[in-house]
Input
Amino acid sequence: TGFDTWNGDCIQLDLDLDPRKIVLASGNLLLDNDSSSKRRHTEIDLALTKNGSEAYRTRTFDPDKLPIALLQSDKIKLDVVKTGDGKLIYEAAIPWDTLGLTGKPKAGDAIGIAAAINDRDEVSPKQADVTAIGLFDGMAGANKNPEKFGYVVLGE
Output
Protein backbone atom coordinates (compact mmCIF):
# COMPACT_ATOMS: atom_id res chain seq x y z
CA THR A 1 0.00 0.00 0.00
CA GLY A 2 0.97 3.64 -0.19
CA PHE A 3 4.42 4.59 -1.42
CA ASP A 4 5.44 0.91 -1.47
CA THR A 5 2.86 -0.18 -4.09
CA TRP A 6 5.72 -0.36 -6.64
CA ASN A 7 7.19 -3.22 -4.61
CA GLY A 8 4.35 -5.59 -5.43
CA ASP A 9 1.80 -6.27 -8.13
CA CYS A 10 1.08 -2.90 -9.73
CA ILE A 11 1.33 -0.69 -12.78
CA GLN A 12 3.85 2.13 -12.58
CA LEU A 13 2.81 4.89 -14.96
CA ASP A 14 5.25 7.71 -15.73
CA LEU A 15 4.01 10.74 -17.62
CA ASP A 16 6.01 13.72 -18.87
CA LEU A 17 4.10 16.77 -20.09
CA ASP A 18 7.25 18.21 -21.71
CA PRO A 19 8.80 15.39 -23.76
CA ARG A 20 10.35 17.81 -26.23
CA LYS A 21 11.85 20.13 -23.59
CA ILE A 22 15.64 20.26 -23.41
CA VAL A 23 16.79 20.56 -19.81
CA LEU A 24 20.34 21.72 -19.18
CA ALA A 25 21.92 22.22 -15.78
CA SER A 26 23.03 25.82 -15.33
CA GLY A 27 25.13 25.33 -12.19
CA ASN A 28 22.76 27.64 -10.31
CA LEU A 29 21.09 25.29 -7.81
CA LEU A 30 18.20 27.67 -7.09
CA LEU A 31 17.39 27.92 -10.79
CA ASP A 32 17.96 24.23 -11.51
CA ASN A 33 15.68 23.18 -8.62
CA ASP A 34 12.90 25.59 -9.62
CA SER A 35 9.94 23.63 -10.99
CA SER A 36 9.69 25.88 -14.08
CA SER A 37 13.12 24.74 -15.27
CA LYS A 38 12.26 21.04 -14.99
CA ARG A 39 10.16 18.70 -17.06
CA ARG A 40 6.65 18.28 -15.73
CA HIS A 41 7.13 14.58 -14.93
CA THR A 42 5.01 12.59 -12.51
CA GLU A 43 4.73 8.92 -11.62
CA ILE A 44 1.55 7.29 -10.39
CA ASP A 45 1.46 3.69 -9.19
CA LEU A 46 -1.83 1.80 -9.57
CA ALA A 47 -2.57 -1.30 -7.50
CA LEU A 48 -5.16 -3.52 -5.92
CA THR A 49 -4.15 -3.45 -2.25
CA LYS A 50 -5.61 -4.79 0.97
CA ASN A 51 -7.37 -1.39 1.13
CA GLY A 52 -8.90 -1.78 -2.35
CA SER A 53 -7.87 0.04 -5.54
CA GLU A 54 -5.11 2.57 -4.79
CA ALA A 55 -3.32 5.21 -6.85
CA TYR A 56 -0.24 6.70 -5.24
CA ARG A 57 1.91 9.49 -6.69
CA THR A 58 5.53 8.44 -6.09
CA ARG A 59 7.33 11.09 -8.16
CA THR A 60 6.48 14.73 -8.83
CA PHE A 61 7.97 17.83 -10.41
CA ASP A 62 6.05 20.15 -8.04
CA PRO A 63 5.65 18.79 -4.50
CA ASP A 64 3.60 21.81 -3.38
CA LYS A 65 0.89 21.47 -6.04
CA LEU A 66 1.18 17.74 -6.75
CA PRO A 67 2.42 16.12 -3.54
CA ILE A 68 3.76 12.61 -3.21
CA ALA A 69 0.69 11.04 -1.66
CA LEU A 70 -2.28 8.75 -2.04
CA LEU A 71 -4.56 10.16 -4.76
CA GLN A 72 -8.20 10.51 -3.80
CA SER A 73 -11.12 9.78 -6.17
CA ASP A 74 -11.38 13.45 -7.25
CA LYS A 75 -7.79 13.19 -8.59
CA ILE A 76 -8.09 9.84 -10.36
CA LYS A 77 -10.83 7.35 -11.13
CA LEU A 78 -9.41 3.88 -10.56
CA ASP A 79 -11.00 0.47 -10.50
CA VAL A 80 -8.89 -2.67 -10.25
CA VAL A 81 -10.93 -5.86 -10.38
CA LYS A 82 -9.70 -9.38 -9.72
CA THR A 83 -11.43 -11.90 -11.97
CA GLY A 84 -12.39 -15.42 -10.96
CA ASP A 85 -9.32 -16.83 -12.70
CA GLY A 86 -6.93 -14.54 -10.79
CA LYS A 87 -6.37 -11.92 -13.50
CA LEU A 88 -6.48 -8.21 -12.71
CA ILE A 89 -8.32 -5.69 -14.87
CA TYR A 90 -7.22 -2.06 -14.44
CA GLU A 91 -9.44 0.85 -15.49
CA ALA A 92 -8.19 4.37 -14.80
CA ALA A 93 -9.14 7.90 -15.83
CA ILE A 94 -6.63 10.59 -14.89
CA PRO A 95 -7.78 14.22 -15.14
CA TRP A 96 -5.32 16.58 -16.83
CA ASP A 97 -4.91 18.70 -13.69
CA THR A 98 -3.79 15.60 -11.75
CA LEU A 99 -0.81 15.53 -14.13
CA GLY A 100 -0.10 19.24 -13.70
CA LEU A 101 -1.85 20.79 -16.69
CA THR A 102 -3.69 24.02 -15.94
CA GLY A 103 -5.91 23.78 -19.04
CA LYS A 104 -6.87 21.34 -21.75
CA PRO A 105 -4.12 20.11 -24.04
CA LYS A 106 -4.26 21.04 -27.71
CA ALA A 107 -4.06 18.91 -30.83
CA GLY A 108 -0.37 18.39 -31.58
CA ASP A 109 0.73 18.47 -27.92
CA ALA A 110 2.93 15.55 -26.94
CA ILE A 111 3.00 13.57 -23.71
CA GLY A 112 5.93 11.37 -22.76
CA ILE A 113 5.03 7.97 -21.38
CA ALA A 114 6.72 4.98 -19.82
CA ALA A 115 5.17 2.19 -17.81
CA ALA A 116 6.10 -0.95 -15.96
CA ILE A 117 3.91 -3.85 -14.94
CA ASN A 118 5.32 -5.22 -11.70
CA ASP A 119 4.70 -8.69 -10.32
CA ARG A 120 5.70 -10.16 -6.98
CA ASP A 121 5.00 -13.85 -6.73
CA GLU A 122 3.61 -14.53 -3.26
CA VAL A 123 4.06 -18.25 -3.82
CA SER A 124 7.85 -17.95 -3.92
CA PRO A 125 9.38 -16.44 -0.76
CA LYS A 126 12.79 -16.59 -2.50
CA GLN A 127 11.80 -13.79 -4.92
CA ALA A 128 13.93 -10.91 -3.63
CA ASP A 129 12.54 -8.23 -5.94
CA VAL A 130 9.59 -7.66 -8.22
CA THR A 131 9.82 -8.72 -11.84
CA ALA A 132 8.68 -6.16 -14.37
CA ILE A 133 7.77 -5.72 -17.99
CA GLY A 134 8.43 -2.19 -19.23
CA LEU A 135 6.85 -0.09 -21.95
CA PHE A 136 9.43 2.24 -23.50
CA ASP A 137 12.73 3.04 -21.80
CA GLY A 138 13.64 5.31 -18.95
CA MET A 139 12.04 3.29 -16.13
CA ALA A 140 15.14 1.47 -14.91
CA GLY A 141 16.53 2.22 -11.48
CA ALA A 142 15.68 4.88 -8.94
CA ASN A 143 16.39 7.77 -11.32
CA LYS A 144 13.71 7.69 -13.99
CA ASN A 145 14.81 9.36 -17.23
CA PRO A 146 11.97 11.09 -19.12
CA GLU A 147 14.33 11.78 -22.02
CA LYS A 148 14.10 8.06 -22.85
CA PHE A 149 10.30 7.79 -22.63
CA GLY A 150 8.19 7.16 -25.68
CA TYR A 151 5.58 9.74 -26.45
CA VAL A 152 2.16 10.17 -27.90
CA VAL A 153 0.98 13.14 -29.94
CA LEU A 154 -2.59 14.18 -29.22
CA GLY A 155 -5.04 14.50 -32.08
CA GLU A 156 -8.30 16.39 -32.45
